[in-house]
Amino acid sequence: MTSTHPAVELDGLTKSFGAVTAVDGLSLRVQPGEVVAFLGPNGAGKTTTIDMLLGLSRPDRGTVRVLGGTPDDAVARGRVAAVLQTGGLLKDLTVGETVRMTAHFYRHTRPAAEVLERAGITDIADRVVGRCSGGQQQRLRFALALLPDPDLMVLDEPTTGMDVEGRRDFWQALRRDARRGRTVIFATHYLDEADAYADRIVLVRQGRIVADGTTAEIKNLAAGRTVRATLPGADQAALAALPGVDAVEVRGDSVLVRTGDSDAIARHLLTRTAARDVEITSRNLEDAFLALTTAQTGA
Amino acid sequence: MTTSTPTRAAVTEPDRRLPALGGFAPGALGIELRRVLRNRRTLAFTLIMPGVFFLIFGLPQGGQSLDNGRPVTAYIMISLAVYAAMVATTSVGGAVATERALGWSRQLRLTPLRPAAYVATKLITAMSLGLLAVVIEFLVGAVAGVRVPAYVWLLSGLAAWVGSLVFAAFGLFIGYLAPAENVMQIIGPVLAVLAMFGGLFVPVEVLPDVLQQVAKFTPVYGMGVLARAPLTGDGVSLAAVANLVVWALLFGVGAARLFRRDTARV
Ligand SMILES: Nc1ncnc2c1ncn2[C@@H]1O[C@H](COP(=O)(O)OP(=O)(O)OP(=O)(O)O)[C@@H](O)[C@H]1O
Ligand SMILES: [Mg+2]
């Protein structure tokens, strides 16, 4: 019954704030058990999408289904839990009290001691939240999200403000906990996090998905090289038709060819066309990310 | 397909039913109460200060009597009990403002706790602290030698306590109106002025005539009159009852409307 529904179905999701279209017709389907990274620059619309996914805000247009039902129902049944980018804790409760109090709101939860242990904060259970570091508070939010043993865990930049070691510890805790079949969606700015912890990467920019694939596929996007040459009046269509060419861009007298076979393209340019100043540069995931997520001026 | 899925069966499925009563739970209430009782500012303003006020302003009146022969100290004690209860209930209701400012409300929306259950928890916490405030004020009075018939203790205490429901609603109203962390610092002086008009610090009769007329329409007036009626033996005027009911409705409806606006998904 539960396994037949996608974990998440977003269809044509749109949300504007005044003149800003934060999310622009975004559609996404996540299957149970997938670990998906939502990768994008500041203001890409990640948090806005997650808010709608969790039922914290309503889309202007489009629909959200979570585990086959409404977000509110999934939240109320403890089937989805989240660690939010914003969202406070009561400073005058202790870590342990916060967990126990939250546990009371559910029909059934894992024992408080167990989630504290899994989030790695057992030793600070008696500490008042106001005196916990940012990283410790983030682990507390994580502990709260573990309480209902959710089928879907949503994390919005969970490691923001943590140092490198804190980030590693956090992800290790998440991994240790990963119940078989749990779906995880996390938003991040960090490519390495997406690369290390996700099976699938969804790149968003200006409220739209600009790339979506397995980590390997997204890396492949980046694995190629760019061949740049000066070639006035380049025949864009002819170049694009060459084997191994991913994309061709003409900027004035320059032509940029993205390809998996840079040698062949360079040879072609030098022998069959009037191209000169040929340059070959390799791209990495960072470049792909930037290329895909940076607003193209005059595009 | 008639077989169940073996991969899922291996993992014990958690209980996915909805919580009873929208997530309202005595356990959470207990933690909430402890949290309130740990707050030094709340304790100082609701449990200690009114008692100290009695010792400073009430005790010197020892030996003096009201028209019906009852001690003036009892009059002052009951007035201060009303004051203590209203500050107590307002501060708990007003804490909603802090929790919204901190973003705790947003965190709560990721749990099965229904907004109505949250408000119910706040109201019960507010009334518990209000009751404690009345009891402590009365204890201070009793220990300091106030002697009145048992029914006066009971009825006056009850009226002070039940009347403070108006201020639990007032606190919630302010809490949903202004998401500010330091909301009590702003309301504190307002409460003091209202208490003055309600005759809690000095009898309304000593105020200038115009102010006496104004006072009858302020929100503390009704509960003050009702709480002191068992002591003074004055009949309960319709105006006092109407005052209490109207203000309870105003704050209650106001809080409910703001609350609905707050929980509407945007
Ligand atoms: N409540 C709001 N009012 C007005 N504009 C908003 C609001 N929330 C988001 N926005 C705008 O919508 C756009 C998307 O914001 P969003 O927070 O979803 O981005 P994000 O991808 O989560 O960014 P970040 O990586 O910085 O967290 C931004 O331009 C932001 O300024
Ligand atoms: Mg964000």
From TrEMBL, chain A:
Of the GO CC terms on this record, one is: plasma membrane
| Name of the protein this chain belongs to | ABC transporter ATP-binding protein
Q: Looking at the record's lineage, which domain of life comes first?
A: Bacteria
Subcellular location, principal: membrane
One GO biological-process annotation of the entry reads:
response to antibiotic
- Describe the location of the ABC transporter domain by residue ranges: 8-231
PANTHER family assigned: ABC TRANSPORTER ATP-BINDING PROTEIN (PTHR42711)
Q: How does it sit in the membrane?
A: Peripheral membrane protein
TrEMBL record, chain B:
Main location (coarse class): membrane
Cellular component terms per the entry's GO annotation: ATP-binding cassette (ABC) transporter complex
User: Per its UniProt entry, which superkingdom is the organism in?
Assistant: Bacteria
Cited Pfam families: ABC2_membrane
- What keywords were assigned to this record? Antibiotic resistance, Cell membrane, Membrane, Transmembrane, Transmembrane helix, Transport
Which positions, given as ranges, span the membrane?
Answer: 42-60, 72-98, 119-144, 150-174, 186-204, 236-259
Picking any one GO biological process from the record gives:
response to antibiotic
Q: In which family does this protein belong, per the annotation?
A: Belongs to the ABC-2 integral membrane protein family.
State the protein's name: Transport permease protein
Q: Organism source for this protein?
A: Micromonospora noduli
